[in-house]
Description:
The chain is an alpha/beta fold. Helices cover about 45% and strands about 10% of the residues. The protein folds into 3 domains: about 1-115, Chitobiase/beta-hexosaminidase domain 2-like (Chitobiase, domain 2); about 125-420, Glycosyl hydrolase family 115 (TIM Barrel), CATH 3.20.20; about 455-655, no CATH class.
Amino acid sequence: MFLITSNTRVARPPALSPAVMNAANILERDISRRLISSGDAKSLISLVPSPMSRPEEFTVTVSDGAMSVAACDDLGFVYGLLYISEKFLDIPPFWFWMDVKLQRLPPVAVPDGSYKGKKPAVKYRGWFINDEVLISRWSVNGDSAEPWRMAFEALLRCGGNMVIPGTDKDSHRYRALASSYGLIITHHHAEALGAEFFLREYPDLEPNYDDHPELFQKQWEDAVLAQKDMRVVWCLGFRGQGDSPFWANDTTGKYDTDEKRGAMISSMIRLQRAIVEKHVASPVFCTNLYGEVMELYARGLVDIDPDIIKIRADNGFGKMVTRRRGSHDPRVSSLPAEPDERGGIYYHASFYDLQAAAHITMLPVSVDFVNSELDRVFSKNLSEYWLINCSNIRPHAYMLDAIRKKWFGEELSDDSHSLRFASAYFGGSEKIARCYREYAPVQLPFGPEPDQRAGEQFYCELPRTVVHQFFRDRLSPAPGLRWLTDAGTLSGQVRYFASLCKNALPGLAALWEKCRDAGGEPIALQSHLQLLGATAGVKLGEGFEYLENSDYLHAFISFGDAARLFLDADVALRSSESGVFTGFYRNDCFADYKHTAFMLQKLMGYVRELGDSPAHDRWYRLAYMSKRDRPIRVLLVEDNHPTDWELYLKFKENEGAIT
């Protein structure tokens, strides 16, 4: 056997690559944190080149009191060293993101034998650290790069080999760091070749390719030169200045038909390919059949070389159909009719759509559902490339852990995965496993399909949309809610929204009670957030009912109740932070519960003007004075005029004044 002690180190042969050096440092850190300090003699884990091995494969061998890791490439050594950490030190992939407190262990005896990792079922497998507004503004011990290092470490521990290291500026800022960990770089579907957006570099020019072809080409070539010494899966394509079609920004008027648009995208893919091939030997290419491109491709209007990996996407809710854009939701299958020769997927564990998706709460569908969809992906031979939108990682660790198992061809279920996850991160708590299993089934359904379940954006975005429309035109329906309901008035839209929330309350309340009893972040936090959001939705509906009946005081109170629930949600976010995760939710600018509360408080102010007196004394006297004193008007008011929120709080303190 080989004894791993606190004095075990990884041998450092000459010219060790940064990737293997990082993995060796990680393992030695894990040994230091995990094992009780002992007086045992120093022992070494050897790194042995194995030219006959396949790329990314490793063999950990224990024989005659020695341990070695054999591999033929950097990632093989990386995976082997991290395997030792997980297999023998019992450190799971998401130990950092799940805030696992590692207990000290005595030296670990590893029996003689050969140990190998599982063979992946997906060739290029990784994460898109997208919509990363939490980790991009968060630091660990004052180090803003540490969250990114821990993200890359977790991805490697999961067996991933590819990453988009952030969105827009972050992807450029952290790609060298990601590459130093041994990860393959790829690109956002809106950022061909990882190039800078045209408008950022040339803000005074219209982003029309036909007007400035040399500038677009220079940007693409600059991006290739900046990454030519990294391992890259080069993303080809042509979209607009952001996550939108290029014709949304084009001012020439030349691309007014789908045929012209498809021809333009096809020509740009060929041109970008030629630029890469000019500087890179044997490059690997991909292109995204996403959104509008999927629809054009399905009609045969986009021409793509057969050796380019074609990436198909889910709808943001785990279903392999085209995503909803505005009110347009055709739900066309994004899977090919026949198995693809070189195919892949872009799949969301997190999504941001300003409608109903989940960004700081889990994907609101079951592991059983995800397993079934990914089995369909395999059935179409889409196993060349899987890119998973992992967002800020911590809120989505449960589903990310499931998907990484699917990378290796495992079959998943809610029962088995919840138990294994609870075993790895919560000491085997059956109560917490049950909370994870029961999370998806109680999430609010906003449509008949199993993937049409609401994340936290449903509860945060819709009230903001309602208030915005109320101030612009309270008699007309909000255009931004037509995707949800065809009600012909704003109040009708609110009634429908509130009815959905009300129907979901019993299940959400029961889940929160179980999670509160079981403990365990982030599932307890997420169940609480969903309950608070649905309860606030009911209060918003009550407020509109009172408003329609000109009962302005009760409308004011109901809107205040809704605002208070969103403030409670913000407090719940911040109260869940501790240790290294202090400040993690500080930049919650997508769900932004506090901003939803602010919008509702503006509505409270408007309603106060409808129901209060011009001198702002009528509601003041109700809230602050006894019934005996209210009729006596020697002094109009006896205090400074309260703000809307102060008035609301006083009414809540003095409930009898409301009736």
